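Re: that chain you flagged

S.,

Sorry for the slow reply, it's been a week of failed gels. I finally had a moment to sit down with the sequence you sent. For the record, here it is as I used it:
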Amino acid sequence: MVIVVVIDSFGMGASADAEQYGDVGAHTARSAACGGPEGRAVWPTLRDGGLGNAAALRGDSLPGVPLVDRPRARFGLMVGASPGKDTVTGHWELAGVVLKQPLAIFPPECPSFPRDLIDAFSGEFGTGVLGNHAASGTEVIASLGEEHVRKNWPIFYTSADSVIQIAAHEAVVPVERLYAYCQWVRAYCDRKGIAAGRVIARPFEGVPGDFRRTSRRKDFSMAMPERGLLPRLNDVGVRTVGVGKIGDIFNHCGLTEDYPGKGNPACLDRLKRLAKENAEERSLLFVNLVDTDMVFGHRRDPQGYHNAVAQVDGVLWEIAESLKGNDVLIVTADHGCDPGFRGSDHTREDVPLLAYSRHCRGTGLGIRSSFADLAQSLAAHFGAEQLPVGEAFPLRDGASP
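Prediction finished late last night. Pasting the structure tokens below so you have them in one place:
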């Protein structure tokens, strides 16, 4: 069994090309660490695993996460090879697909989306749209929610990510109709060659002054342009299990099971159960923990981000302690979303790489030139067809890459 835990947006500092994205100086892990008690992280599992050692590979340090002499995990950093800093791009690269061209980023000013798209949507559903600009999700429903309730028009908005987000009040637009809106927009973009990474349904509830997003968010992602890791693992009989939004990100392609839990507590509970069931089996558990990004990163809440990582840290300890035989636990991320940085969008950052196994010596894996190194390593570990990108490393001591 191999478990890959993606702590969503847990970046380890601005990438070398961060200037192209306006992200020089971003460092999600450091900002989150400073959100801990007395300005220091309380993440003992990540500390003992060598997170501080990984940070030191690029000359960084994290408050409360010092270098340790005998790390419990193999440690390193990974640099994104794909252009962009969004969820789809990051996860696809982790699964062995490196994009040559960035996904579509829509202009922040109104109108963000192509006029033909909006006109076609209005013609199809007989409704206008509100918003049509970049915005924070909580702010846009606060500012436009009352008008939406009055007119029954959906709220369209975007961000620095490759997304078209559609918000609607569940009592005004039933959630299944909202999903139908998103499915239509997804199909339109695919047909017209608009490379929107995700179309996201954002249902909300409440009354003016107290609108709240509900847990029935749903993502509609682009089809992957190439055959990545997951179907290659299927070819050799590996059970592939997605937890959280993994299924949505990969359009459920290559997953034998999918558990779309909402929020970290539900996903962590599912992970603990699955880890027990799959011990020493030929299986990959691929887990996304979204709250660090969605709830705390975008809302620029360092303390909340720190505490969310601390919650994850406790479960990582339980799983690391229970690993058997050739089981491996890998901790990484897909991009950054620095809670101490300006704005509210993702940040272009390197990501951590920690690989726990029994009796691990905690050797360094260096700074990897692509997230796809992980996918190539997983393919080699399970004896699957080699990917066209990525350089494999051994997932555990004594193993060949």
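What I noticed first: The chain has a mean pLDDT of 95.

Talk soon,
D.
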